[in-house]
Amino acid sequence: MFLRKLGFTMIELLIVIAVLGILAVAVLAAINPIEQINRGKDTGTRSDAEQLLSAVDRYYAGRGYYPWMADNESENLAAAWVELQGTATTTIAVGADGEDMLANLSSGGTSEVKESFITRIINAEQTTPLRIFNEGSLSSDSTYICFTPKSASFREEAWKRCSDDGVARALPGDFPPLACPAGGTCATAATSDLATACFICLP
């Protein structure tokens, strides 16, 4: 007696594989994994910027002068736009006093941040570069921590702060002018996709 074996034919298997492939492509297109990764990086960088800005504010509140100043007798002459990145052994001096701002924030009995945090944010292989801006004319000037976003959603946020549908906005107060570079890559870009040079600045 002949028994018929049940199973799938090769054509049926190919159809199932093709359907699964189409569904996988549709899901990947919907979630855009590269955008999700970049958004995660930007969120981490924003968190680092907030922590660093908070540390600068706490340092100023406790001592009456900024961490780039030698003491409260110094003038606030911070460089207007300083990138806080290099290697783990780089001393980054901000301002005329030549004080190592990051070392001052991470040392002493009342260190504002851990040394491991400083080592990480200045390592180009681990993080997006942060930049600090301070007007430098008065001790009460606002301090900003800025970074160039990697994700489309963060880039749109930066572009909207710099641009009004392709027309450069008037910047608020002492907002760093270099955060909104002129030209087709930021403030005058027609869309946020073209605004690759705009910076997210906190606060």
UniProtKB/TrEMBL annotation:
<dbReference type="InterPro" id="IPR002416">
    <property type="entry name" value="T2SS_protein-GspH"/>
</dbReference>
<dbReference type="InterPro" id="IPR045584">
    <property type="entry name" value="Pilin-like"/>
</dbReference>
<keyword id="KW-0472">Membrane</keyword>
<dbReference type="Pfam" id="PF07963">
    <property type="entry name" value="N_methyl"/>
</dbReference>
<dbReference type="GO" id="GO:0015627">
    <property type="term" value="C:type II protein secretion system complex"/>
</dbReference>
<keyword id="KW-1133">Transmembrane helix</keyword>
<keyword id="KW-0812">Transmembrane</keyword>
<keyword id="KW-0488">Methylation</keyword>
<dbReference type="GO" id="GO:0016020">
    <property type="term" value="C:membrane"/>
</dbReference>
<dbReference type="InterPro" id="IPR012902">
    <property type="entry name" value="N_methyl_site"/>
</dbReference>
<dbReference type="GO" id="GO:0015628">
    <property type="term" value="P:protein secretion by the type II secretion system"/>
</dbReference>
<protein>
    <recommendedName>
        <fullName>Type II secretion system protein GspG C-terminal domain-containing protein</fullName>
    </recommendedName>
</protein>
